[in-house]
Amino acid sequence: MERNPTPYKPIILSPLPPVGEAFQWPPNIHKPLCLPKIYVYPDNARMGEFQVTETPHTGTNHNAEHILLGQLRDKQSSAYKNYVTEDPEQADFFFIPFLGSKFLADCWYTKGVKGDCDVDAKYAEPMMNYVQMEHPYWNRSSGSDHIMTHPMDNASLYYKSKDRMQNAIFLTTVGDKRVASTIDGRSRRYSDIVIPSAAALLDLASKNPTEWLDKEGHPKGGVRDIFVLFAGRYKDVKPDEAYSAGVRSILYNGLDQQPDYMIAEKFENERYTELLSRAKYGFAPQGYTMDTSIWEYIAFGVVPVVIADGITEPFEDDLDWDSFVVRIRRRDAHRMDVILRSISEEEYERKRQALWYHGRHALLNHDAWHLIVRGLCRKGLLEGTRTIARNHHEPLNVDTLLQ
Fold this sequence. Notes:
single chain; 12 strands; alpha/beta; 5-stranded parallel sheet
């Protein structure tokens, strides 16, 4: 029961009537803001030889570009059925199938080459030449209706040809309101759409949470007996370090000794999967951007403890992140254990249920494209329209539901 520090008895008023669906927040994401058509440029050797070369993935967390492109090209996917057109003249947006992080990861981790790997001459420049010089669509809008994915920590800053890309809408894992990231161009808050990262356990090891959890997100045959879980770099992080704004250093300052915490720099996949199914909270400090482990927490119903001042979460306009995460400011990070232990079981369960039933929509393999398209609708000022004909947008049926 809440304590009343005043001498007066509190009163409870009659509840306000509900507002119409158009005024509700968070919104019903299954009712689209608009229904744009997206044209995906087909692969062509003139985009760079890499584009038409079979190159295996390296197992990094930067595979969002590959996953999202694959969903647009899969004719059985809801993304393809709802949004893709094979006719560029019918398109509202144009998706550039740029796989820059795959090129760099293959060069760095498979071939063992350091530096920029000549990515501009071999890949980025041919890609932009093909889009800008061999087709009329970029020049028709100066690129403002084109989409590129940049899923690495420095977004487009890996490429000397980044200036040629700047007019496009970036799907990026870097969302940051802090001045440093906006000055150097890593984060373009009003031009980008922030997306989830790929998660190694989900998208590479293909672990399925439903094998461990029931339909309501509870462990099958067990309980969530781990208070806080974390796997990632922390032992060498200094309090005044730029990486994670020093936040990860608090784990090496006593928290990793708490009996009901499970903290390590790495767990084997099977072990980590089992721990996720048993954890109540997951420590989600920033790295250089949002920590990728947050997506594993969300998938397994583990309430994230976000300590990442100024970080922009994916799809903030449509998902109520505060309903399913515990947010702690950096200045209070040293009090994390006290803050978490003061949360009642009722409040924890509210957050866990909101996470299970709503937060999971943000995952790449759930409703990511539907949420991305809502961002595209806003950037194209297309709300409330069925956008098929470029010069005549028909009104959207408000009862339309996504397939």
